[in-house]
Amino acid sequence: MARKSRKNTNIAVNENDKKNTVYSAALYIRLSIEDNKKRGNSIETQTSILQNFVALNPDIKKADTYIDNGTTGTNFERPQFKRMISDIENKKINCVIVKDLSRLGRNAIDTGFYIEKYFPSYNVRFISVNDDFDTNKDNGNSGIILPLKNMINEAYSIDIGRKIKAQAHQSMKAGEYIGARPPYGYIKDPDNCHKLIVDEEPAKIVKQIFQWKYDGISYNQIAKRLNETNIMTPNRYAQSKGIINHKTLMGSGYWQTRTIQAILSNECYTGDMVQGKAQYINHKKIDIPKEQWIRVKNTHEPIISHELFDAVNEKRRQIAEKYKNISVERYNENILKGKVFCGHCGRNLNRNKNHKGEYVFHCLANERIAKNTCLNFYISEKYIIENILKNIQNHSDIILSKKQELKKNILSKTDNSECDYEILKLKQSVEKNRMFLKSLYESLVNKIITDDEYFEMKQEYESKISFALSKISSIEKSQKDLRKKIKDYNNAEKHIAFIHNKEILTAELADKLIDKVLVYSDKRVDVFFNFDDKKKEDDNIE
Question: How do the domains of the chain map onto residue ranges?
Fold first, then answer.
């Protein structure tokens, strides 16, 4: 049959002829913990399979990629899956592609609901590449096979989960350590990752912390002593040994009171293995009663004695009881909560009352971290709020001017036919190169070109498609960002008008208007607004 020309073809969605539809596809990728051991399920492999599939199907264009890494398939409470569903409901995508059915989910009922009910209700095409399943095609016996595969996937997931939990529980009862990272003061035995051995250097710090607490030293003072002697925190020490490397796990690099408390409450330091303190139900951590914890005596070398551990924790209990009985004066609402920072060291300022009963903000770096960490100064809350109100008043004219400027900018770009024409040309380029890709594959199958020629030309076409799509996205994002800024300035103008009329700043308005406030020892107050374009990074800090 002669090939029909695609010139001037109408690619709009036609319910009576799906062949004419160009689908905006979501490439959905999921990797669970157990999948990490299977190379074929890696994120890279799934991405490659889905991208190659799209490249060979000119009626499909990639709208976005959604990756849930390390999430279970037994439920659909997954961040990227939810984002994909939101995009479906906002009509951004009308096609979902997965490597195989298990990537969508391993819960037979819910997975079946999405494929058979939800996706069709939004006219969403669903494709499972490795299962050769496509809701736009006659799938033969899929009415029988699809539910069966879903049930197999669910049974597999349940079985794997049950085995993992049973094995973990058995290992805990046997006194084997099952945690990913050893407690500070210990390392895992190189010959047995479930056994702990003492790490001498940090073990000395653990002993010192217990002794200080036994001598009546406060948590703050212990943290301060450790910081002043440049002792690495547990996370920084783990980083130096190559145990962790993720930035979010590094912390501030300073000892905190909660770190001290965690060490003092860990029975592991007595040589006993205590595990099973919590369990996860529907991805929520549930604490288990202390009497149900799994305890195994004398599993490893102790760092401190049982007597010292019990004595220290009895003192901690007594201090906690004492503070429970002290009546605490109720503070007024802190309308600037989490927004006031030290202009010198960048840390949150602490809010409390002075001897006159006035609320003041104070940098605690010298008291909590170490001497000479920062400048020691106090500044009244009233003074900060007065400066914020003055700053807001001064911004009224600026906001109005910027809003008008942005409106002109966005109108000029929206009405500019060159912008629309550029997007149109880019989209035509994408379609043209998709057609070239498809014909390229046919040429390979028909042995018109060699493998080397195929891969070289395929990479060139894919690069052109990627570049064009990126350019389209950039132009559209620019327009979207401009519209968002207009909305932000409209809201800011409304909130500032309210403050002018009432001459008062509320917690709600502070949250909507203010990003952060930097305060300095010379009483300078710098206010950074949510709608402001000026730089907000920490290099503003002295």
Answer: 18-161, 186-324, 383-540
